[in-house]
Amino acid sequence: MLGILILGALIFWPKKPAVSVSTEETQEAAPVTKDSQLLIEVQQLLATSPTFNNVNATVDKGVVTLSGLVASQADSNRANGIVKNSIGVKSVKNEIVVNAKAVANLEAPIEAPKPAPVKATKKAAAVTPAPAPVAAATNPGQLRARAMIALGNRQVDSGDYQGAVNAFQSALILDPGNAAAEAGLRRANEAMKNH
To answer: How far apart are the C-alpha atoms of 91 and 97, rounded to whole Å?
Structure first.
């Protein structure tokens, strides 16, 4: 409810420029803002399906470039179609790689290492409790948020700081308050400042 009120206030609040800005500066800043907004919208569209967990998008002057992995050509075509029909998209460069084996390996569950056997001693040893199980993601939004966090971490490591910021912001949209996404966003912003 609060979000709706804030959104309404932002829409209807009178917009008065605080400082006069030349039209050249305004024209240069506009595409960046539009591209950033378009990127968030495209990432949200792709987040609606776990099929696109390994698909990344970038935007430059309304041209969306899709990259990453999917299991089939049909999945690649579907991602292309979803993005192509979005408002504000001028064209789509589909650089998605189709590789079912690679996707299966990425999505395979990671098994925790088995604990080492405990040696019996003559003295009564205190039993240490097993670690609490990690909470499993319960909805597709949380699963997609995890994928976006992993993507963001890879992008920070490769030097794509703006892409990482966008990925972490998308993760927070999908799973608000996610500590890993918040930490990743701080890391990406800090790396961007230092770069």
So the answer is: 19
